[in-house]
Design brief:
The protein is an alpha/beta fold. The protein has 19 helices and 16 strands. It is globular and about 70 Å long. Bound molecules: cobalamin and iron/sulfur cluster (SF4).
């Protein structure tokens, strides 16, 4: 019998690129493909609609006629992913539609009962995908849904008919699966050069320079641990793998020598790689491991051969860590600061391993990285639900000051309401949008709104004004931190505050940057 083909589809982000964001391949999907080829010899194609568009997608579906299409989704891409699924249903009614990824958490029943998806998978997809593929017969979808062995595959929500579904037993992920799946990633089959070329096209060299990302465009992202367990209440990825009621998934991670081995495999496939982005939610979660990794990098590659990027939290940065990482080649570190105000921080339940003044701690983390020669990129959520005007001003003042000293910024104005975040259990107000797919209307959460109605109005006005300026000036890919600073400037202006300091920092950035399209001053004078 000829092997049935499977198509895995990455999340479709129509809004890309967002300021400061780089295109990257959907690693989870490639990891599943590698594992399924290696363990079960399955015939798998991978398609990334964010890179190749809807027309390319339809061509792929029509020419390969897959028996199973697996969609990877994230909360903000769900609408587009469901639309692609509806198109497949129309072209190939007998194909099994499966959906997984971070974006299914908390929406499993909705997606199976009203989203037109046959099987929704929670957690890591490698084992469920292989098990589902084994149930495919000549009648594709019908065979799988009628097979009693479907009930033995854990972590599934299966559509029974419109409006009803059933769930199979939950199971946590094992350390063996994490290791085997990571080892099965076939880097040679991931078209990194396409993504690198796309990023080069998107960001002129002046932007890259201003964002302090020189030499970081040929980057390969790696995931070396299963998740971050720290449990901040607005975060969904911290709970994505917690599928068993009342039990938390233990963190599964590669040891430093295993990370080096993965890098060597990636480098052998793509020797033109200049940097690795250790894209774990918190690469410095286990101090000993991060320090040992830095030591091994110097031993194996020598100083300067490779650059590194990672993400961590302010309470995991100290002088020894910063200096050691800098020596190993770490150039850019994303810091989940979110706010510089201790009051707002308390409401976020970030469980910091630190007592004392939070503003000083957060500033110290940023300055310590700068002193070590690493660029800190400060992530902020200025309009977190509990925020008050005084706290917002503390955040803006510190962010502007630290950018003037060399830090960079990423701003998410409102708190994204990702289903699965524990903040849903609070009384926070949530904005929703309704989407219509396959004859059903789905109501999806979008943002947690500020509690204080005046702050809510302020946020909405500032976001609108900022978006209008971006559109008018066609500056959607304006470099960070210019885009972020300009947003903060808009907030200050709306509050009737003095903008002289932020104006000075913007002007200073322009003079460093030289002549680059959509310069900050042009933007400010709009
Ligand atoms: C690298 C990364 C990116 C990269 C690459 C994106 C990608 N598509 O993989 C870039 C920079 C492009 C990116 C962009 C965005 N990202 Co992003 N990203 C990440 C990050 C840091 C790691 C993702 C990763 O590689 N994980 C490791 C792999 C192995 O896991 P995985 O992808 O989840 O896949 C496994 C399972 O989910 C499951 N699975 C996944 N898909 C499928 C499909 C099927 C059929 C099955 C059965 C199973 C399955 O099996 C996989 C293998 O085990 C995560 C943080 C995190 N904790 O995951 C955020 C994260 C996924 N991103 C997020 C968001 C919001 C986005 C954006 C929408 C950002 C935005 N608002 O601007 C865009 C969307 C663009 C796009 N087209 O994907 C959110 C999603 C939140 C949510 N609850 O949905 C996360 C969780 C970060 C966060 N804020 O919490 N991102
Ligand atoms: S530290 Fe970051 S990844 Fe970890 S729970 Fe908090 S927000 Fe999520």
């Amino acid at each position: 019998m000829t092997k049935q083909r499977i198509l895995l589809v990455g999340p479709f982000d129509r809004a890309a690129p967002r300021p400061g964001q780089y295109a990257a391949p959907p690693l989870g999907v490639y990891r599943m493909a590698g594992y399924a080829r290696q363990t079960a010899n399955l015939e798998i194609d991978v398609f990334d609609p964010s890179l190749s568009g809807v027309r390319g997608f339809l061509q792929q579906v029509r020419s390969t006629r897959p028996a199973l299409v697996g969609f990877s989704t994230l909360a903000p891409t769900l609408e587009m992913d469901l639309r692609l699924a509806a198109l497949v249903r129309r072209i190939l009614p007998g194909t099994l539609l499966v959906m997984g990824g971070q974006g299914v958490a908390g929406l499993e029943k909705l997606l199976a009962e009203e989203g037109g998806i046959d099987v929704v998978v929670r957690g890591f997809g490698e084992e469920p995908l292989v098990a589902l593929a084994h149930l495919l017969g000549p009648s594709g979808r019908r065979d799988v849904l009628a097979d009693s062995r479907l009930g033995d595959i854990p972590n599934l929500t299966v559509r029974e008919s419109a409006g009803t579904s059933c769930q199979t037993r939950p199971a946590l992920a094992s350390a063996d699966l994490f290791r085997n799946a990571t080892e099965a990633i076939d880097f040679a089959r991931i078209p990194y050069p396409h993504y690198w070329a796309e990023n080069q096209r998107r960001y002129p060299s002046g932007h890259v320079q201003l964002m302090k990302n020189e030499g970081l465009l040929n980057t390969i992202r790696l995931i070396t641990q299963s998740h971050c367990p720290l449990g901040c209440n607005y975060c969904s990825s911290t709970r994505f793998l917690d599928v068993v009621e009342g039990r938390r998934q233990s963190v599964l991670m590669q040891e430093p020598h295993e990370i080096i081995a993965t890098m060597e495999r990636a480098l052998a496939a793509h020797p033109e790689t200049t940097s690795f982005y250790l894209n774990d939610d918190d690469f410095v979660l286990v101090r000993r491991r991060a320090l040992e990794f830095a030591r091994l990098v110097i031993e194996r590659f020598g100083p300067g051969r490779l650059s590194f990027i990672c993400m961590t939290r302010v309470d995991h940065v100290d002088e020894e860590m910063a200096q050691t990482l800098a020596r190993a080649g770490f150039r850019l570190i994303f810091l989940g600061v979110e706010t510089f105000s201790g009051g707002t921080l308390l409401a976020m339940e970030k469980h910091l391993q630190h007592r004392g003044d939070y503003t000083s701690l957060a500033r110290r983390a940023v300055l310590t990285l700068l002193e070590a020669g690493i660029v800190p990129q400060i992530g902020l959520i200025p309009f977190y639900p509990a925020v008050r005007v005084g706290e917002l001003l503390v955040t803006i003042e510190n962010a502007v000051d630290l950018v003037s000293r060399g830090a960079r910024l990423s701003i998410f104005p409102l708190t994204d309401a990702y289903p699965g975040a524990s903040l849903f259990k609070s009384s926070c107000r949530v904005s929703h949008k309704e989407i219509r797919v396959g004859g059903h209307t789905l109501r999806l959460p979008i943002h947690f709104l500020p509690d204080d109605p005046a702050m809510q109005q302020l946020a909405i006005r500032a976001i609108d004004e900022h978006q209008t300026l971006r559109t008018e000036r066609r500056t959607n890919t304006m470099p960070q931190p210019v885009d972020g600073l300009y947003f903060l400037r808009t907030v200050l202006r709306q509050l009737g505050r003095d903008t002289a300091t932020v104006d000075r920092v913007l002007a200073d950035l322009e003079s460093q940057q030289g002549r680059v399209p959509c310069s900050p001053l042009q933007y400010m004078n709009a």
